[in-house]
Amino acid sequence: PVVREEIASLEKFLGTLSGLSEKARSVAIEEFRSGKERATSYEKIRNDAFDLYWLHRGRRNSLGEIFRLYLRVAMSDGALNESEEVVLEMISQGFGLGLKETTLIKNSVIREFWSEHKEYYRKASEERKKTEQRLADQARAWIRSSDFTALGLTPEASLDQIKRAYRRLVKECHPDMLQQRGTLSNHDQKEAARRFHEIQTAYDRLIAIKSSAKAA
């Protein structure tokens, strides 16, 4: 669906164009709305754009400004997606704008947009990276905590304690050792393998972390 703010922005701008009739304004709004919602064919979009062109044909500069606004609204999320590109192409054709003129307007709008919003998107990008880093740190902390738990230890455990716990658990939980003590069902074999895999991976990660910290 069309974002209400986009339509409101377009309506506000069209209201500033002197000499633009109410009918022309309505056509412009509807043409943009239908194009964004993909509720009509591209042919109809182009025809509606031509209707606006016909109503406003004596003011070519105004048509260029209207097209410029369409571009700015479409760029409001920071990019032009493929469907927006196609709709804008249909509109430019309906307005009778040539490829060169359309390209000039498009490049101008993109430059203006990034000039006006680069600080916002820079901060947004930084915040996104911070959030991603925080989530990654939380995930790593959880993994590390679960690794200690798998070995029956606390995060304060030393490297020697980790090694001792691992050797003890290998004797207690290795599937081959359990099999020697009695026949295991398929389910028990799977659970034993799962438990030992948990122990082994936890040990490998903790040894790598502790060894790295010790080397540093």
Describe this structure in words.
- The structure is a single chain.
- The protein is built from 9 helices and no strands.
- α3 (42-55) packs parallel to α5 (82-95) and α7 packs antiparallel against α9.
- It folds into 2 domains: 4-123, no CATH class; 151-215.
- By secondary structure, it is an all-alpha fold.
Summarize the structure.
With about 220 residues, the chain is an all-alpha fold. The protein has helices spanning about 5-15, 20-35, 40-55, 60-75, 80-95, 100-150, 160-175, 175-180, 185-215. The protein is built from nine helices and no strands.
Low-confidence stretches: none
Helix and strand string, N-terminal first?
HHHHHHHHH
Q: How many separate structural domains?
A: 2
Oligomeric assembly:
single chain
Helix amount:
over 70%
Global structural class: mainly alpha
The total of beta strands comes to: 0
- Content of β-strand: under 5%
Determine the mean pLDDT: 76
Major sheet characteristics: none
Rg result: 32 Å
Shape: elongated
- The first-to-last residue Cα distance is 55 Å
Q: How many helical elements?
A: 9
List its salient traits.
216 residues, 2 domains, 9 helices, 81% helix
Please describe the topology of this protein.
Blueprint (H helix, E strand, L loop, with lengths): L3 H13 L5 H16 L4 H14 L4 H15 L7 H14 L3 H52 L8 H15 L1 H7 L4 H30 L1
